[in-house]
């Protein structure tokens, strides 16, 4: 690489690279996290040993839209996954029950580990405790604030996603190390809050719209279908459990 500008090992964080062009560039072993890649075009490239975990739509590889293929394969691997896209009040109730049962098994696996392992990150991802804290934030934001209109639904242990800009009043303590039982107690409260909303759903109410309270907070104060915040919470619960199970496998192997 004598004729190349050597930027290997660089870290680009909170930068705007929209419209940039990379030509004859080495991007081996690049790690991209919490990024928006809409409209990206990759031509005459070699994709070998590439792993992508993302929400994908209209992704064409060699002329083939692979998004429907990926969705179908994920549904085949996880037969309960289609249940996470309900369209009726009964469907939301069933999805929430499924998630509670699945998470119960995941928590049982976590309890079997030494407590310090639950604060250990795998490949830079959230620890098990941080994952539960983030789910607490998601429920507080989308249901507590978004649907119930609570201006300050936050708990000091709530953990927004890493890329979210700081918002007044929303906690973001990355250093605190609560034990599992403390986090599970908060999680039980938040799950009960979501369950109360789902229990009160009707198909008619599900078709209505809501507007979160005004202010510089999350989610933004924009009208949206009532179903949308609930679908966000279902998706967060589903995806992060898979991530947690993946990382628990690694932590268990490390113990030997």
Which word captures the global form? globular
The span between the termini is 41 Å
Radius of gyration: 20 Å
Walk across the major sheet and give the strand order.
1-2
Secondary structure: number of strands:
4
**Number of alpha- plus pi-helical segments:** 6
Structural class: mainly alpha
Helix content range: 40-55%
Query: Biggest β-sheet, characterized?
Result: 2 strands, antiparallel
List segments where confidence is low: pLDDT < 50 over at least 5 consecutive residues: none
List the secondary-structure elements in sequence, H or E.
Answer: EEHHHHHEEH
Protein architecture, described:
Strands 1-2 form a two-stranded antiparallel ribbon. The mean pLDDT is 94. The protein has 256 residues and is mainly α. The longest helix has 29 residues, at 227-255. It contains six helices and four strands. Strand 1 and strand 2 form a beta hairpin. It has helices spanning 67-77, 89-111, 128-145, 180-199, 203-206, 227-255; strands at 60-61, 64-65, 209-210, 224-225.
Give the gist of this structure.
With 256 residues, the chain is mainly alpha-helical. It has helices at residues 67-77, 89-111, 128-145, 180-199, 203-206, 227-255; strands spanning 60-61, 64-65, 209-210, 224-225. A two-stranded antiparallel ribbon has the order 1-2. Strands 3-4 form a two-stranded antiparallel ribbon.
SSE blueprint:
Layout: E1 60-61, E2 64-65, H1 67-77, H2 89-111, H3 128-145, H4 180-199, H5 203-206, E3 209-210, E4 224-225, H6 227-255
Antiparallel strand pairs: 1-2, 3-4
């Amino acid at each position: 690489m004598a004729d190349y500008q050597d930027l290997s090992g660089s870290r680009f964080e909170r930068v705007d690279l929209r419209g940039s062009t990379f030509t004859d560039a080495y991007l081996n072993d690049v790690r991209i996290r919490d990024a928006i890649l809409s409209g990206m075009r990759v031509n005459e490239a070699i994709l070998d040993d590439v792993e992508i975990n993302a929400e994908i739509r209209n992704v064409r590889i060699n002329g083939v839209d692979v998004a429907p293929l990926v969705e179908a394969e994920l549904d085949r691997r996880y037969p309960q996954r289609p249940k996470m896209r309900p369209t009726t009040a009964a469907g939301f109730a069933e999805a929430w029950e499924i998630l509670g049962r699945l998470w119960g098994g995941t928590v049982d696996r976590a309890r079997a580990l030494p407590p310090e392992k639950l604060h250990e990150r795998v490949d830079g991802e959230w620890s098990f405790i941080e994952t539960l804290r983030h789910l607490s934030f998601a429920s507080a934001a989308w249901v507590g604030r978004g649907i119930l209109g609570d201006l300050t639904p936050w708990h000091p242990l709530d953990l927004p996603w890493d890329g979210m800009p700081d918002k007044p009043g929303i906690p973001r303590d990355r250093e605190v190390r609560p034990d599992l039982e403390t986090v599970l107690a908060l999680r039980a409260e938040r799950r009960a809050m979501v369950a109360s909303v789902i229990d009160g759903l009707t198909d008619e109410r599900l078709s209505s719209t809501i507007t979160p309270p005004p202010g510089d907070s999350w989610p933004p104060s924009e009208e949206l279908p009532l179903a949308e915040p609930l679908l966000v919470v279902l998706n967060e619960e589903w995806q992060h459990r898979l991530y947690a199970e993946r990382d628990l496998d690694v932590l268990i192997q490390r113990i030997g």
